[in-house]
Every structure is written in structure tokens, then in C-alpha cells.
Write a structure and sequence with these properties.
Number of strands: 10
Strand content: 5-15%
Shape: globular
CATH topology of the largest domain: Rossmann fold
CATH architecture of the largest domain: 3-Layer(aba) Sandwich
Largest sheet: 5 strands, parallel
CATH superfamily of the largest domain: Glucose-6-phosphate isomerase like protein, domain 1
Strand order of the largest sheet: 2-1-3-4-5
Structural class: alpha/beta
CATH class of the largest domain: Alpha Beta
Radius of gyration: 20 Å
Distance between the termini: 45 Å
Length: about 350
Amino acid sequence: MNIAQKMPGRMQQEICEAPQALRRQADALARPVAELARRLRQMEPGVVVTCARGSSAHAAAFAKHAIERHLGVPVAAAAPSIATVYRRALKLDGQLLLCISQSGRSDDLIEQAKFAREAGALTLALVNAEDSPLAQECEIVLPLCAGPELSVAATKSFVATLAAVLRIVAEWGENEPLRAALQRLPERVDAATRLDWSPCLETLAASESMITIGRGPTLSIARESALKLKETCNLHAEGYSGAEFQHGPMALVTEHYPVLMFVPGDEAAGPLLQLAERLTAKNAALFIVSHDPPGLLPALPTDQPEADAICMIQSFYMTAVKLAKLRGIDADNPRHLQKVTRTI
């Protein structure tokens, strides 16, 4: 093996850059997030509407959980086609539109932001590209500070997006435990990068289909993991909440069927562990990510539930790189995909 073959690929390099991205973000967003939070407390929006695609849509689902859980404000996902295809504006006067995009170049998100701003919404963009069209269309822009991301599969920008969401929630709700957890997050993400999930690799490498499951703060993690399994490993995977999984998809489970379960560090753990018992009784190939109780795949000691979920996706990303290699796939060059996806 030559030196070039030993060098980590772009995806792996960028996964390892996530902790430093979080440190940059903490400095860069301290003042603008505090100012945004003061404005939101004055506005008291009755609803937050999210607009995102791909991995960013999973970040929006994470935002839905965090905002509803800690602030009690309902969150709904916009259907951009209402603006781009049907040319209909939503009644968003005095409400918050949260747009999330790594590149800021999806035409449907840009158009949705334009319609919402004209309707009187406060438009907020979480973007990695501060000079993007989406950033220019929104009233407030918060940079993710992830730095250049060249790998087709978004990793460090996803981690940075989740952290930015938690910063908004922490300041908006003046949540001291969440603020403290964010201070510890870079070091914890760094530690999560090195956790060993090798017990699942052989089974998943030989699989053609699987399920990922989460609940509460880990639902978005399960969905993002399923997307990355498709994207980088050519492995069909679907992400579900533990509750929704029992309304039909449970029928997919046969003996040795692989299931990856992300157990959160809060009240949602109980129902998931009950589901785990049912899956074990069906002889599924169940891989549980948990610290308490210890899962077959390790997680860091519990700290704060939403921050813990971010650490889980970091561990998964490193595992996805290894899994792709076992399946003979170049994770840096997924088939049929490109870095920036333009949709209308």
C-alpha cells in the first residue's frame, strides 16, 4: 500500500474537523445568537416553520424536537413546492421561518424564504456559505463556521447545524444547563469520533436493507444515519421513530434483520428499550447505541440529551466510512450524487 492509499479520504478528514468547527462557531455566534434570542423573546412567535432538504431536513427535525421540548413553540416543516410550483404564500406575518442549508443554493428554499419575508415573517438562515443566494434572501444569517466541506456527504456541517440550533434554543430560553452542555460539546464530539462501533460492521457489510430507529432527540440522528447508509454505502436503510416503526414497518423484521437503534438519554429511552426487547425476541440483528444501559455500540456517558445525540451521529459518521470501505465503495464519490443539489 502506498502513502496515498494510507491517507484518509475527504469525508473522514472532515468528520475529524467537526470539533474545531464547533469551537469556531462558539466564538462567532455568541453575540448574533444572543441578539436573535432577545428579538425572539420580544416577538413571541406562535410557530416556527422550517425549510430544508436532505441532511438539513434532518437538522430541521432536530430543531423541531429541541424547540418544542424546551420552548413549547410548535414547529412545522414547510413544503417549498407551495411557493415554487403553486406560487402560494403562507400566512407567516410575525412568525419565524428557519431555513437550513449547507450551500444555500437550492432554488426552492430561496423562493420559500422570499415569499415568507414578503409575508412578514422573520427569516433566519443557517448556512455554511455566507455569500449564498439563500443568505442574501434572509433577514438574519447565522454561519455554521464548518469551513470548506468538499465531500459530497455532509458531516461536519450537519454537526455544526445541530449545535447552532441548540445555541438558539439555549439563548432563546435562557437555558443554563444547555449553555453549559454546549461548552463541553467540542471535547465530547472529539471523544465520540474515537468510539469503537466495529461489532456492527461485519453484519451491515453483508446486508442489503436495514432499519435505523430513534426517538426524541435521536429521531433526527436515525434519519440522518439512514440517509448516509444509502449515500455512502449503497445500503438501503430507512429511519423511523420507535413509535412509528410499530405502525407497519415492524413487518419487515425477520430473523437476523439488521436494526440500528439510537437510545436517547432522556424519558424517551424507556419506550425504545421496550421495543428493543420485542426486536430481540424476533431474533433481529439489533445494534443498540447507548451508555445507560450499555449498548453493543458504545456511547459517551450521558451529559445533556440533545448534545448527546450530536455525539452519536459523530460516532456513526466514522463507522460509515469504515463500512463503505468494507463494501468496496468510495465514500468520497457516491454514485449519482453531487455536492450541491438544485431543486425547484
